[in-house]
Amino acid sequence: MNRLKNKVVLITGAGRGIGRACALAAAKEGADIVISDVEKNIEDVPYDLSSSLQLEKTETDCRNFGASVLKIFADVTKIEEISAMIQEVMDRFGRIDVLINNAGIGAPAGKATHEHTEKEWKVLINVNLSGPWRMIKMVAPIMINQNCGSIINIASTAGLLGYKHFVGYVASKHGVIGLTKSAALDYALNNVRVNAICPGPVFDDEDVDGSMTKVVADSLGIQLGEQEEIDLQSVAMGTVVSPNDVADAAVWLGSDESLRVTGSSITVDAGYSIK
Ligand SMILES: NC(=O)c1ccc[n+]([C@@H]2O[C@H](COP(=O)([O-])OP(=O)(O)OC[C@H]3O[C@@H](n4cnc5c(N)ncnc54)[C@H](O)[C@@H]3O)[C@@H](O)[C@H]2O)c1
Description:
Blueprint: E1 8-12, H1 17-28, E2 32-37, H2 52-63, E3 69-73, H3 79-93, E4 98-101, H4 118-146, E5 149-154, H5 167-187, E6 192-199, H6 212-220, H7 224-234, H8 243-254, E7 265-268
Parallel strand pairs: 1-2, 1-4, 2-3, 4-5, 5-6, 6-7
Helix pairs in contact: 1-2, 1-8, 3-4, 4-5, 6-7
The chain binds nicotinamide-adenine-dinucleotide.
């Protein structure tokens, strides 16, 4: 309890899934919360992104834990929307202690490297890699000025390993690991820490409207049950990760319990990447 008290935590992609789980976990730990999401679909992404109702659900759930919540619709591919969001956060809270770069897309995917169009490649890099970079570009000066902050990039085991027929996703998440390490060096003397979390397969938890396993299954043209079985077979612990497992790691990285941790990529993958 209260491990994030007096901290302002900003979470992108908080409409559902891991982002909502992170928002709820931060709210339970006493933080002031900024939740943001994109509100509309993005061209070339072959599935629905979060609706405004989903972000409102996150807002209500956080408020039920007694948190102060600011909800902002912003697209991480648009620097001007990020800039307006950061201004709004500073007007309301005057600081940003923790940035959770969670917004991401899992597709277009499901084909060999050369079969992708340039638009498909670009949208994955633009959201998954350039999105966190844009957020850091706008938030780092504030954290430097505060002489403290924790930036948490939600990467993936796809940032550490190859996945057949997911080249754009894998390349973008490998990029997030590089972004994490270099930014960690840039801000180490400013007491601003930058770390990545690499979740393995996360199950589609209904409590947070999770749907990424379905996106993966649809991309590969298989049934959801088949993908779930593949995921279960691939994890050493015989159980896949929940969004709350990822949120627990984010709370620790955001809290003062991890003050000497920077530049790390922490796997939360039930042993998926051990071998
Ligand atoms: N679910 C998994 O198995 C898994 C595993 C490893 C890593 N991840 C990563 O975790 C993060 C969250 O994924 P999830 O499983 O909760 O998926 P999700 O689709 O449920 O959540 C992603 C959120 O990001 C938002 N978003 C997408 N593009 C955006 C943009 N341009 N601007 C702002 N918001 C945008 C979506 O609307 C959505 O609310 C992603 O970065 C994903 O790559 C997920």
